[in-house]
Amino acid sequence: MKQNMLYLIIGGLVVVVIALGIYVYREQTRPEGVELKIDDKGISIQQN
Question: What φ, ψ does residue 37 adopt, rounded to 5°?
Fold first, then answer.
């Protein structure tokens, strides 16, 4: 039982590290400046 709990904790930590890595990568590769989106909801302008 203890070994299963250890695997669960390690698995949870691995998931958190991967999610944090993906978040940081997306933030670092996001282009700087103004973002213009045109879709079915209309036009939106967002400054990055």
Answer: -120, 135
At residue 31, the 3 state secondary structure works out as coil
Query: Phi first, then psi: what are they for 40, rounded to 5°?
Result: -70, -15
Amino acid residing at 12: G
How many alpha carbons fall within 13 Å on the CB side of residue 3?
0
Q: Across-strand partners of 46? A: 35
Residues 1-48 pLDDT 10s: 788 999 999 999 999 999 999 999 998 888 788 888 999 989 888 876
Tell me the two tokens of residue 24.
């940081």
